[in-house]
Amino acid sequence: SRDYSAPVNFISAGLKKSAAEDVSEEDSDEDEKPVKQEEIPKEFVPKKLKTGGNFKPSQKGFVGGTKSFVDFGSWERHTKGIGQKLLQKMGYVPGRGLGKNAQGIINPIEAKQRKGKGAVGAYGSERTSQSLQDFPVVDSEEEAEEEFQKELSQWRKDPNGGKKKPKYSYKTVEELKAKGRINKQLSAPQKELSQVKVIDMTGREQKVYYSYSQISHKHNIPDDSPQQPLGKDSKPQGFALPELEHNLQLLIDITEQEIIQNDRQLQYERDMVVNLTHEIQKMSEVLSHEETAISNLSKVLEMVEECERRMQPSCENPLTLDECAKIFETLQDKYYEEYRMSDRVDLAVAIVYPLMKDYFKNWDPLKDCTYGTEIIAKWKNLLENDQLLSHSGQDLSTDAFHRLMWEIWMPYVRNIVAQWQPRNCGSMVDFLDSWVNVVPVWILDNILDQLIFPKLQKEVESWNPLTDTVPIHSWIHPWLPLMQARLEPLYSPIRNKLANALQKWHPSDSSAKLILQPWKDVFTPGSWEAFMVKNIVPKLGMCLNELIINPHQQHMDAFYWVIDWEGMISVSSLVGLLEKHFFPKWLQVLCSWLSNSPNYEEITKWYLGWKSMFSDQVLAHPSIKDKFNEALDIMNRAVSSSVGGYMQPGARENIAYLTHTERRKDFQYEAMQERREAENMAQRGIGMAASSVPMNFKDLIQTKAEEHNIVFMPVIGKRHEGKQLYTFGRIVIYIDRGVVFVQGEKTWVPTSLQSLIDMAK
């Protein structure tokens, strides 16, 4: 057992080391022996301070102590010496300071006893030689104070009674230059303060100084106060020589100022030499550029003079427009800067304009519309100003090409347009089409607005649709690509003239359609529909009223006259005409026919014949569907009501089959239209996805039920003739070959999809 009551002397911490590591540490301890005092350099051994009074420096600490450098780090004798080893590995040399440049503290901080009981600094600087060596401080105030003390000591007598040798301080020229550079940075207010008159009344007598700098030297000379009586050991003090001092100081200051001024002048001259060197380089570059420009301009001038010489009438080789264009191309390629800087307007007026006039003197635009387009396009690239390519407006003073076209080319166009007949529009349209990419936009606008449009307007006013054999659209519509909206003012008088011509028109005259059809896409949809409703639809309604429906001898001319306008008038207008003027008479004839024991085969043929007269677009309209479905319902009721009378064999089955077939066609057409619409919406990305497009009639019914929030689901275990029954809201239905049958009172009745939705709601 162990005795745990004994006191603990040492507590181990960390990892347990091996025996080999212990042996290596012992060897390192043997190598680290204490440094003897004799081995330390003498300059690193601190001196003992002479202290006075009751001040006793501490013998244990470093601050104010007298321990030698040997005691520094003496605690390591009780350790493994790891700190000393780490310092040596990092390049530390015993006896020198720490840091890269050995500027750290070597000796402990020494204490210095103050002479009296005054404040800090009252008896001069309290820094020791050791502290100044270890902590070098650059302080201008301290340097000035030291300099002041040195100068002051020269005025004092040697306390030993000997003659004190004066000490002189010298300034080098470099120091004066540095001082001059610093003083040069003084601002104007500081210079003014240095020349202020100062009155010193701190002493017994009033003293006057002429600058603040003189105050700092007021202690250089001992006070002029009466001296104390000389004692037995005292010696007389020195005499003041202010005049001599002033003169000497003045000479020194003048010399210093001359040195500083000469240094500044030298620096200024050097800077001037550098600036002039750069200026010479710049001027040499400018000179070379100017020489190149002069050479290029001289060559350009020679080419221009050559052009002028060849333009003289006496020249054997006169200049042509093509050759002149090649010369301008040379100027633009080889001398681009000079060409852009030159006044191209004056140059073109002097050279190109006469050649252009001579080139177009025998030109007839309507006979040869492409004459000159290539050469003018070439001159456009040569003369047109880049800043005017937007054609925002006309500025003839800055663009030579625009002025050329306006003054040379435009007069020929004015003469031709003045002689031109608007009804012969082909040659004029071809002429402007061939020049549209060459002529400036504002010039083309001027031609169309000021020359062409007034001629067309005057011709429209004189046009009479009843007497003129040439239709108006043949000489108005060719201008649509060029003029477009500019022709809008002509449309209103054209519609008025056409309306007046249609007052006595009858639908049997097909010439009206030939005249109006080209204007359908030219007029706006609103104005076209209003024109049709006002002038055509009433005439067609009168024609339908005159139509006599006779199953035994039917005349279809009036009906054809109306149906022939289907593409001209809107579907809604045509459906309105049929509902008002055709179907009432048609259903009345059907009812009267069914009441006289008819032949149902003839009725079926008659029904299908009339239905085939209408286009799919008209038949798809809900109102037309309802009318034909009403006819089917009338035939079904007629077949069902004649129970006791004579009935043609197979009539009921034929009518039922007809009804089934027609309803199925309607449903299939609806499904196809729905499918097309859904596919278009899916392709545009604004409708249903492609997977949701109905693939059969059942999917179509389900889609409609979802749109109208109607429950559509199969009835479990219920069938009719092998067909699955469904509930569509409160109605029971089944689907057979694309036809919906609804459960009635006695039998299943086929119905349309829209009627099914209305019944379910």
UniProtKB/TrEMBL annotation:
InterPro entries: G_patch_dom, GCFC_dom, TFP11/STIP/Ntr1. Residues 22-32 have a biased composition (Acidic residues). GO terms for cellular component: U2-type post-mRNA release spliceosomal complex. It comes from the Eukaryota. GO terms for biological process: spliceosomal complex disassembly. Residues 33-46 have a biased composition (Basic and acidic residues). Residues 79-125 form the G-patch domain. Residues 15-60, 113-143, 215-238 are annotated as: Disordered. GO terms for molecular function: nucleic acid binding. Signal peptide: none annotated. Coiled coil: none annotated. Belongs to the TFP11/STIP family. This is TFP11 protein. It comes from Anhinga anhinga (Anhinga).
